[in-house]
Amino acid sequence: MSQPVEATGPQPFPQDWTSLLVLVPHPDDPEYGIAAAVAKWTAAGKTVRYALASSGEVGIAGLEPGQAGPLREDEQRRAAAIVGVSDVDFWGFPDSNIRNTPELRAKIAAVIGEVRPDVVVTIYGGAEFGPGMPNQRDHMEFAAAVTDAWDAVADKPSWLFQGGPGPTHVEAVDGYLDTAVDSLAAHEVYLSVLDPTTPVREQAGRVVDMTTPAQAGHRVAGFRLQRSTVA
Fold it and tell me: What keywords were assigned to this record (predicted)?
């Protein structure tokens, strides 16, 4: 039976897999931390799919949800394509009101059963990214729902990770940082409204620099192992 996993320090991200499913609550969530790793994996021939609980429809100030949702879906598809992901699904759960409900857990479990990935990567579920940097409730609720759903499925993937601080595993992403910047910068309207005074590509570069720190001479993307069926 699989158990929660505790690791003593960062290890290399597993390599012996072919398919990975990224589960997140909003558009742009994949680009905040893991896009460089995704670009590396798809370049190596691995299959990566994205599934998003919401369309981020309340995430752009000044735009009605009916306008913002389709726009953010389009930006997410462009961002995904830049890192080699063509399969992007939106589930229609309400942005800013995502909760760890039976309905959400059932959807997550159904998609895991349908896709049958070797690896699942989801959003960071801790209360803070760092001192004075609180996490969003949508993120925490969604991450908890993914873990609960993973525990409930009979045919489990080999690994469940959260992206985020305090990694147990890291993927060296040297050579893929510019691609990660391009991917986040594809959320052009979202970022331009989020910070109108800073050029979009500059914003994207800052995020990639922050989320891919240097370790042992390499820039790395970090992941927190939550569950594993691998001995």
Answer: Zinc
Question: If you ran DSSP here, which 8-state letter would residue 196 be given?
Answer: T
Q: If DSSP codes are grouped into helix, strand and coil, which group holds residue 208?
A: helix
Determine contact, residues 72/56, Cβ cutoff 8 Å: yes
How many helices (H) and strands (E) the chain has is answered by: 7, 12
Backbone angles phi, psi at 152, to 5 degrees: -90, -20
Q: What CA–CA distances, in Å, run from 181 to 27, 46, 56, 126?
A: 15, 21, 20, 25
State the first-to-last Cα distance of the chain, in angstroms, to the nearest integer. Answer: 10
Q: What residues in the chain have per-residue pLDDT under 70?
A: 1-8
Helices (H), 83-225: 102-115, 137-152, 177-185, 188-194, 200-211
Q: How much is the pTM?
A: 0.95
Residue type, 3: Q
Q: How far is CA 141 from the centre of its chain?
A: 14
Structure tokens belonging to residue 229 = 């069926």
Bridge pairing between strands 11-12 and 128-130: unpaired
Question: How does DSSP classify residue 14?
Answer: P
